[in-house]
Amino acid sequence: MEKTTHLIMGLIFGFILYYNGLAPQYAFLSAASSLIPDIDWLIDKEWISRRSIIRKYWKRAFGGRGFHRTILHNIWALLAIDLVIYLYTSYNYLLLIGFSAGFISHLLLDSLTKTGIYWLWPYGDERITGKSRFHIKWRITTGGIGERIFQITLILLLLLIIYEYQPILQELLKKLFSRY
After folding, report:
1. What is the pLDDT of residue 170?
2. How many structural domains does the chain have?
């Protein structure tokens, strides 16, 4: 999925957390952390795709598999980052909840694409272990018409969530649309 789709879904998760009592900064952290797993795309572009020593060892260890949707697109990465956040923020579980919600929203969305993700990577990646397991994928093409329709649906859902829980926004929309 594209960054926009991930950001919208992160906002949806964040607003749900906010309306269930989480402070706004943690809810917005959810939106920001929904973009974190795609850092591996940048690493793939800059280090693995170009001729570098890292590429040599990566290809040797993992065959033809690219870097994107591997290291950061699995549950192990989430658990490792969560542990670091938990330990280095004086056991702030609210920060952990906000971050994890966005990260999981990213993994869920990428599971809807044709490429999908390996939730327990490297376990289950047939290019590494020989058998495909825990590889969840669906039919949406990244950047395609299906994703555009999905984005519009998510935007409408986000607006509905905001409208339902924000009396100020409800009054504003009533005033705007009462003229017509």
Report:
1. 65
2. 1
